[in-house]
Amino acid sequence: MRMPAEQPSSCQPSFSRWSICSSDCGAGLSSRRSNLNARCTTDTETRLCQTKRCSDKDHVVMNVRLRIA
């Protein structure tokens, strides 16, 4: 796990909750707003997430949805 950089002593840590994973199964992305950085400025952080593994059935359903859309 990455540790946040040293912040100015006047900085009040602030961050939002992580967003829901962008994928129902398999790898996706999640993001939040945070000032947990050396400049103490609000920025968007992004991380990889995985809600569950995709089965072959999930993969077929996703492909059908993409073709219809």
Automatic annotation (TrEMBL):
Residue stretches in coiled coil: none
An individual GO BP term: signal transduction
Domain of life from the UniProt record: Eukaryota
InterPro entries (UniProt xref): TSP1_CCN, TSP1_rpt_sf
Residue span, CCN TSP1 domain: 11-54
Pfam families: TSP1_CCN
Protein name: CCN TSP1 domain-containing protein
